[in-house]
Amino acid sequence: MQNKVQVQQNTRKEIAQENLRENSPEIVIRSMTLEDIPAIVAIEEASFPTPWSAESFTSELKDNYLARYYCLELKGNVIGYMGLWIIMGEAHITNIAIWPGCRGQGWGGYLMRNIMQSMFRSGVLRLTLEVRVSNITAQNLYKGLGFRAAGLRKRYYSDNQEDAVIMWASL
Ligand SMILES: CC(C)(COP(=O)(O)OP(=O)(O)OC[C@H]1O[C@@H](n2cnc3c(N)ncnc32)[C@H](O)[C@@H]1OP(=O)(O)O)[C@@H](O)C(=O)NCCC(=O)NCCS
Prior knowledge:
Elements: H1 2-23, E1 27-31, H2 37-47, H3 54-63, E2 67-74, E3 77-87, E4 90-98, H4 107-121, E5 126-132, H5 136-144, E6 148-153, E7 164-170
Parallel strand pairs: 4-5
Antiparallel strand pairs: 1-2, 2-3, 3-4, 5-7, 6-7
Coenzyme A binds near residues 96, 97 and 140.
């Protein structure tokens, strides 16, 4: 009984949060620009053991015509971002991160759901990504959005030789 009440409370909270997001002008998902890079690198460095540099993001934005990068902005502050490479109807997610102080509040799911909807509208049929075997939080996020594990890339991560789980989702 307590579980049922808890589930109902959680569902109400999620609906309230979703309404807030749908109707709020303070929450924006937009394309990343060169001016965003310092904020993005700060999130990147707080999120990954081998963070991408400002130069890597600059080159992605300026030189990689396959790349699409998006920021999630809350009240004028960038709190998260996500990047993809789009190759022949498939999108490869390169990175997603939310500022540590804003995690666990639904923002990662919100950002991914919106980008996935936008990908679907532009003709993308499948998405793929790699995630550390130890990164259960991210794997839970992806599973909740319809991704399924499809194999391992052995010793994929150079810092600790950790394996990557390859995941795919169909839109
Ligand atoms: C992974 C990440 C983007 C998730 O963003 P977030 O805003 O914290 O996630 P949300 O609050 O939207 O939660 C979405 C789902 O993720 C999972 N999740 C979130 N926090 C979790 C935690 N602490 N433990 C386990 N699962 C968790 C849950 O499945 C959750 O769904 P639920 O709320 O319905 O249970 C964020 O933790 C992050 O930036 N991590 C560091 C960078 C990273 O690991 N990126 C992924 C690289 S592959």
